[in-house]
Each structure stands twice: as structure tokens, then as C-alpha cells.
Amino acid sequence: MSRPPRRIPAPPIDPEPPEALLRARDRALGDAAVARAGLTTTPDGRWALDLRLRTDADVPSCVRHLEAEGIPLYVERDLGDPPVARPAFPVWGE
Question: Strand 34-41 and strand 73-77: pairing?
Fold first, then answer.
């Protein structure tokens, strides 16, 4: 799986994620192929599910079910290491 294009989440349109999305996240976490599952938003502000798959796993069937339900979904391979926070503008000392 190649690295997806960079996405920039927008502020959510709704203050709370829909219950269906929370249930979908919980179901996805029960799949052995899913390393991490969380919530994010799309560039247009809709709530979305962010799944990280184990590097050695096939794409699980839960992904197909979630897509069929129309749930906005981002799926990437888990790199194993958490992201590293770096200053936004290091030349400015931030």
C-alpha cells in the first residue's frame, strides 16, 4: 500500500461524531488486521474513521463493509512507530 496523499482535516461540521461512526470504530478494533483506529475529519469537515492496518495483514473485510455503509474512511499501513512532533517553523525558533 503506497503512502496516500497528504490530507488536511477541517474543523468538524458537527460537534460530536455520529454514533454509527463510533460503533464502526469499535467493530474495526476487534479485527486482528487493525492496529489502531481513531476519528478524524475530511477536508470538508465530515467525521471519518482513520484505520491503521498491521504491516503484515491483508485489507480486512471490515474495510469493505464500512465503505459499503458510506462511512468516510482513511486506511494506511501502521508504521509501528508513533509520529514524531517537530517544530512547524524551525528556522524561526518555533
Answer: unpaired
CB 48 within 8 A of CB 65: no
Q: Per-residue pLDDT averaged across 14-30, rounded?
A: 93
Q: Is 15 exposed, middle or buried (0-12, 13-18, 19+ CB in 10 A)?
A: exposed
Q: Note whether 51 and 30 are within 8 A (CB).
A: no
Structural fold of domain 19-78: GMP Synthetase; Chain A, domain 3 (3.30.300)
pLDDT of res. 5: 54
End-to-end CA distance of the chain: 34
